[in-house]
Amino acid sequence: MKTLKELDYRILTELMKNAKISDRQLAKKLSVSQPTITRRRARMERMNLFEYTIIPDLKELGYGIISFTFVHFKPSARFTQLLVRKDMEKQIKETLLQAPNLIFISTGTGLGFELVSVAVHKRYSEFIILRNEIANRWGDYLENIDSFVISMTGDNMIRFLTLKFLADYIHQQRTD
Known about the structure:
The protein starts with 5 loop residues before the first helix and ends with a helix. The protein has a four-stranded antiparallel sheet, covered by helices on one side. It has two domains: 6-55 and 162-175, Arc Repressor Mutant, subunit A, CATH 1.10.10; 65-151, Lrp/AsnC effector binding domain/regulation of amino acid metabolism (RAM) domain (Alpha-Beta Plaits, 2-Layer Sandwich). The chain is elongated, with a radius of gyration of 21 Å. The chain has helices at residues 6-17, 23-30, 34-46, 79-84, 86-97, 124-138, 164-175; strands at residues 65-73, 102-110, 113-121, 142-151. A hairpin with a 2-residue loop joins β2 and β3 (113-121). It has 176 residues and is of the alpha+beta class.
């Protein structure tokens, strides 16, 4: 874990809310000098604490679905054992590289699964194609594959995907 001072956390949370804010505006908001902000921001960038990116409105870009797919491997083929096998590791990487809409994948534990992936899809049929490819490619090693699908087209969103809420949470944790 990186060692940060309180000002660094305040800068970080403000940048999470608005990465386009200028050092001058940020300095005014945090009541410190602009050179201090510039120096601190540059230090955190060198520490690789963050990168600048945007979170687009996926619905407006035509993506109608976000899917969370969970995988449970057969006891004889746990994912950590599969990664040791170079041929399977190569196949998994090839599958992931062929699915640019797969935006996150990780091993973990919970709900009886060892792997989770998150993907965006324009249509439900794209989701089915990706899910079938995973099942077909790794089928001999899978015990169970399950998904949670979110429609981006209705009024079902309670809280939209943004880092503003995380920034507020980090700030709250620092002040408690």
